[in-house]
Structure formats: structure tokens, C-alpha cells
Specification:
By secondary structure, this protein is α/β, with parallel strands linked by helices. It has a domain of about 190 residues: Collagenase (Catalytic Domain). The protein is built from eight helices and five strands; from the N terminus they run αααβαββαββααα. Strands 2-1-3-5-4 form a five-stranded mixed sheet. Helix 3 crosses helix 8 and helix 4 packs parallel to helix 6.
Length: about 290
């Protein structure tokens, strides 16, 4: 009932308003007809909204033309020499130096024993002790190991203190103690190196370097470097290179560029423990040229 009543009331209101407008128009003069027409148009304009025409937006679709991808393969020419190359030292010479110093051993040289590549594959922990050594000797040792530590592939070496575990003993001793280690050492020998290796893998496990405490001052650095290189796997002295630190008849030089390059070749990831001369020669030709 409430809804019906409301509708009726609204109809009445609308109707009354319309009637009022017509009554007023009748009482006016004939010229009001124009006014009526204008009024009706005004009223209609207020109550009626002309709908805007509907517009349909069609999304534009664009198809990009297919493009063919062409891969151009470029071949980078091999440089004339590798980064290791030393002017004046041919690949053949380096192969020979390597075989002489790495694939041989000083005290097995005349026995016909065939030596394979042997090197450290774990960090070297060295302990320095003995008699009559000084801070200069320690400097020579630690500084040279720092140089070796910068070689790619070398597992690294660091000094340990008394009571700590070590796998390389570096000892300054008397000449009698040195001679007592092996019958192959004579009275002119100033130092001696030995190491043990795993016969299955040819990896060096531990080593010992003995230095006579009375080595002349001007020879100490050369002897120290020579024995360290021997113990790291360059186990034989060279007869071919008179200016090498590991020259058999020592001119008491320090390690030069060729010595360090030989060490870098030894610890390259292309040279594996247990490799023979032919295998090493093939690898060196790819690394050094």
C-alpha cells in the first residue's frame, strides 16, 4: 500500500504542473503562442537528453614483419705467441728444459730410472728451524714462496710455527748432519732435498730441505731458491742453462724468467701428476708457443 500511494501522488504532481502551464497560456493574448512554444521547447530540453551515438572501438592489430636472424661466426686468429712466451726461448727448448729438470732426478739420473711428473697438489706448510739461521734466511725463504704463490695452479705455501702440523721441514744444520742423511752427499754439498710421493698418484706428500748453516753469505739466497724448486717438483739440476738457479755447477744466480716459467708449466692444469715426457711435450706445445 505504501508503494501504490506514492505512485499516485507523483502522478498528481506532474499532472498539476502541466495543467498550470496550460491555464496561463489560455488567458494570455494570441502572441503568447510563440512563448508557449518556446516554453515547451525549453521544458523539453531540460527533461530530455539526446543519447550520444554509440561508438565501437575496434582495437588495431599490427603484425610486425618476421625478421630472419643470421648468426655470423667469427674465428679469432691465434696469437703468434702465448702469454708465457719468452723471446729467444723456443717451444722445443722449453720442452727440453722441462724434461731435464722435471722428468729426471739428480740422484737417479744415471740409473735409467724413468721419472714421471711429481708435484704438490695440496698446500705446503713449511716449518723453519735449526742452528745459526737468521732473519735474512727467513726472508729469502718466505719471499721466494710468495713468488711461487702467485703462480696459477700452485696450491700455495705458508709458514707454520713450532708445535703446528707441517709437511715440509726446512732445517739449518751442520755439514756432518747433512752428510749423515745419505751417502750420496759429499763434503762439498751445501744443501740437500728429499721428498716422498704417493706411488699410485705421483703426488708429493711431504719433504725435507737441509741447509748447511755455514753457507757463505753471497750464496745463501741462490742455494735456498734452488732447493725449494727441487722440492716442489723440479727435482733435477740443469746442464743446459748455465744462468739458471738450478744449474748443476751453480753460478749462484737467483731464479730467472725461464726458471719461473718452467715452474708455471709444471703447475699448469694441463700438466698432471704421472704424465710422461711425450704427454708433457704435447701439453707444453699447447701452452707455450
Amino acid at each position: 500500500m505504501k508503494k501504490a500511494t506514492a505512485i499516485i501522488i507523483c502522478l498528481i504532481v506532474v499532472f498539476t504542473s502541466a495543467s498550470c502551464v496550460r491555464i496561463n497560456n489560455i488567458t494570455n493574448t494570441e502572441t503568447t503562442t510563440v512563448t508557449k512554444t518556446v516554453t515547451e521547447k525549453q521544458t523539453a530540453a531540460a527533461d530530455f537528453t539526446v543519447p550520444e551515438p554509440e561508438t565501437t572501438v575496434i582495437p588495431e592489430t599490427t603484425t610486425e614483419p618476421e625478421t630472419e636472424t643470421t648468426t655470423v661466426q667469427t674465428t679469432i686468429p691465434k696469437p703468434e705467441h702465448s702469454d708465457m712466451y719468452i723471446k729467444g726461448v723456443s717451444t722445443e727448448m722449453m720442452v727440453e728444459y722441462f724434461a731435464e729438470t722435471v722428468l729426471s732426478a739428480e740422484y737417479a739420473r744415471d740409473s735409467g730410472h724413468k721419472v714421471l711428473v711429481q708435484k704438490w697438489n695440496k698446500p705446503v706448510r713449511y716449518y723453519i728451524h735449526g742452528i745459526n739461521y737468521n732473519s735474512t734466511d727467513v726472508y729469502y725463504i718466505t719471499e721466494f714462496f710468495e713468488r711461487l704463490n702467485r703462480i696459477d695452479g700452485f696450491p700455495g705455501a705458508y709458514r707454520v710455527n713450532f708445535g703446528e702440523s707441517y709437511n715440509l721441514e726446512i732445517k739449518f744444520c751442520t755439514r756432518l748432519e747433512l752428510q749423515a742423511k745419505t751417502i750420496t752427499v759429499d763434503e762439498t754439498c751445501a744443501a740437500f732435498t728429499s721428498f716422498t710421493f704417493n706411488t699410485a698418484t705421483d703426488e708429493i706428500q711431504n719433504g725435507t730441505i737441509l741447509y748447511c748453516h755455514d753457507i757463505p753469505r753471497d750464496q745463501r739466497q741462490s742455494v735456498i731458491q734452488e732447493e725449494i724448486l727441487n722440492c716442489m717438483g723440479m727435482s733435477d739440476d740443469t746442464l743446459l742453462r748455465t744462468n739458471s738457479v738450478i744449474y748443476q755447477y751453480s753460478n749462484y744466480n737467483t731464479a730467472d724468467e725461464v726458471d719461473m716459467t718452467l715452474f708455471a708449466l709444471l703447475y699448469s692444469d694441463r700438466i698432471k701428476c704421472g704424465m710422461n715426457r711425450e704427454q708433457c711435450a704435447a701439453a707444453i706445445k699447447e701452452i707455450y708457443y
